[in-house]
Amino acid sequence: MAEKQRRTRGQREAVTAEVDSGSAELTPDPDRPRAWTLSLDGAPQSHVDLDDPRWLEFEYIRRLGHIADLCAPPGQPLQAFHLGGGAMTLPRYIAATRPRSRQQVVEIDARLIAFVREQLPFDKNAHIRVRNGDARIVAAKAPDAFFDLVVVDAYGGSQIPAHLTSVEFVVDVARTLRPEGIYAANLADGGRLEFVRSQIATIGTVFPHLLLISDPAVLRGRRFGNVIVAASRRELPVRELSRRTASDPFPGRVEEGTELDDFTGGAPVVQDATAERSPKPPPQVFEKR
């Protein structure tokens, strides 16, 4: 793999490489000596601190981390399935907070996997298996009732592929979860949030318990951003998630029950035949400040 380096603040070098999905760049974090931000075609995707994998820089990953924390009693190992890899931030976090967890990661970009493995190697004690492939195809071959947590965070560039948004996809992924397991998805939308509303309607046809977590400004349509959806066949830890999310550096809001029903507002359930990619973020979302 041809890689290039360039100087950044603090004299550490950024590393770039051409991967299957475009141009990947690892930029050093000036405030943390062994931390890096992974960007794909200029869009920040992941942040990893090799010294402290428990540190979650991006707000959406922090919220997924809260869900992982509350998926089982503290320290109890998980069987986790990650559809979408990036720099493997959440698998590293789970490996650090829940030793002996067994995790499978599916990433469609083979050259990105190689780049991340070389530049950001896993801790030798982390039981993380990374598989190259399409998330839906690999999920279809996964065993029934096997995982405690499934995280869907798969993007093609800055958009979720259409075939990962349908009810048929959610049904098949739900099949791989144990009865007490949690399904979590990272969505992105703005404006009237029509994509998010349809995804909540879609996921809600499969799971009886559902909630979302997001920045209030995103929920009001004031900016484009991430929305985390968690779903399960069991009741979700709404109160504790609300407490943790409200105390984050960028506080979020949890919606569930009647409020979530009102928010969804009769949005259509997405079928394979009607599925579309998630909205493309406006250019200013990735502008450097």
Give a verbal description of the structure.
- The chain is built from nine helices and 13 strands.
- By secondary structure, the protein is of the alpha/beta class.
- An eight-stranded mixed β-sheet has the order 8-7-6-9-10-12-11-13, sandwiched between helices.
- The protein has helices spanning 59-69, 89-97, 110-119, 135-140, 167-175, 194-204, 216-219, 238-246, 257-264, and strands at residues 3-7, 13-19, 22-28, 35-40, 43-49, 79-83, 102-107, 128-132, 147-152, 177-189, 209-214, 225-232, 253-256.
- The mean pLDDT is 94.
- Helices cover 27% and strands 29% of the residues.
- It has a single domain (50-279), classed as Vaccinia Virus protein VP39 (Rossmann fold, 3-Layer(aba) Sandwich).
- Strand 2 (13-19) and strand 3 (22-28) form a beta hairpin.
Q: What characteristics describe this protein?
A:
Rossmann fold; single chain; 8-stranded mixed sheet; 289 residues; 9 helices; globular; 5-stranded antiparallel sheet; alpha/beta; 27% helix
The assigned CATH architecture is 3-Layer(aba) Sandwich
Topology as a string of helices (H) and strands (E): EEEEEHEHEHEHEHEHEHEHEH
* Strand coverage percent: 25-35%
Highest-level CATH class:
Alpha Beta
CATH topology: Rossmann fold
Number of helices: 9
Spatially, the strands of the biggest sheet line up as: 8-7-6-9-10-12-11-13
User: Count of DSSP E strands?
Assistant: 13
- Would you tell me the overall average pLDDT? 94
What does the radius of gyration come to?
18 Å
How many angstroms separate the termini? 31 Å
**Which secondary-structure class do the elements indicate?**
alpha/beta
Helix content: 25-40%
Mass-distribution shape: globular
| Low-pLDDT runs | none
Query: Going by CATH, what is the homologous superfamily?
Result: Vaccinia Virus protein VP39
Major β-sheet profile: 8 strands, mixed
Q: Total domains, how many?
A: 1
